[in-house]
Write the structure tokens for this entry.
Amino acid sequence: MRLSSRNVCLLAMLLMLVLAVFGCTQKDDVLKPQNKATLTLRPTYLPELESIYNYEFWALTIDGNNDSTFTSLGKFNWDNTLYRFMDVSGNAIDNEFELPELYSAYDYFLISIEDAIDAEPAAPSGTFILMDEVVDPVTRPISMKFPSDLFGAQGSFMLATPTDDTLDQTNETKGVWLCSQVQTPRSNHDTLGISGDSILYGSLADTLDGDSLVPDIVGVLYPTDSLWTIINSQVVFGYDTLPHRSINVEWITEVHKDSNFTLSIDYIIDNGYDDDSNHINIFLGEIYYYNYLPTVTSLPDVSQYGWQYNTWIFHEYFPASANIPQMVPFGYKMQGHLTAMPDWGVIELGAFSVTNGIVDSADITNRYGDNREVPNFPGEDFIVNLPAGYDELEFTLEALLDSSSGKFGVVVVGLEPLTTNVAGSDRNFPLFFLSGDLPTAEQYDPSFNSYTFHNWSQSLPKIDISVTFSD
């Protein structure tokens, strides 16, 4: 819903940020006398929007009490092919906008993203894509740009399917995650020592059966007529506590209440086994598990301007039978040589947020993955519950097929509106800043599973404004 408390907070935060960044003294730099003005807009890299959105041009006034007034200068759309402004009905319009008041009455110019069906046309949505302050256009030309600095963002992605069991390596190229996967050892000392009225004969158990817990079963010797005799029965002491990242294990030596045996820790394991396929080395008392670490860093908080992050996979060869939507093109020329061709299919991973500039939490969806192990990072495994027509989604190719762009697929980190009807679209929003090519099957290396993003922030949209004054 528009006009939610979140939108009101976003507008309030925007006002405070504008005041903090630009200050309140810019009117001293505005041309005198205070004439009427016509603004001529010249976009660069401005993307076309889906039919569910419109652009809206605003002039913001802040009075002495820091109260703000937004004046709409008009809604419009953009045709990137014809390089023309269009009205909301699709008719070509001029790129000139008249200010209803004197030029010096305004403090900032902004472009917002609005729902095509606008529930509150008198107020902006709270999602601002471009902005700049009102200054003397002669001494400092006006250029509206994205309000957050994304030039320092960097990182990588990996191909893996942890949610179907990290021990299962058959589906690894069917998942994409914004993190790294590192094998980490942990001590695995177990209850293999025993002492008491009889002596230890040997550990007949302490084996692993898949992921289940099994009893400690120990064969013991009892003295009979001064001879040690193996008793054909076995003593079950209970279930092992296997190492797990979410469990803190505290080892305690105690006397077993039913048998008078004293259980203790034996650090010399002479009846263990070595199971490399399960990453367990009982002889060394270690068990290996996957630890997940952040890889995407230096991302600013864009929620204050009405945005959230998302990741999309663009692919030239998604299954022909699948009903995968076509991507929304980005707003720049030679797009296919930089990211993806405009006719490629697109699948989203899910929206996410950041903490102190680092991607360190999961996205809001996990629609196609299992639940064996779900990293707390943005990503998705495409292995179960695929929609009709999605027989299989594979993100590598056996060989690089003939492609006019020299690539077949990319992973893109971009932005989408937080305050508008983003749920109405199953495609990408055409605003991005990081991209990385998907590897071929020959390039894919599970032992070095990291693919670096390139920062394309120089391709973010901007609109330069020239001002013509009149009496």
Summary: The two ends are 42 Å apart (CA to CA). Helices lie at 5-22, 335-338.
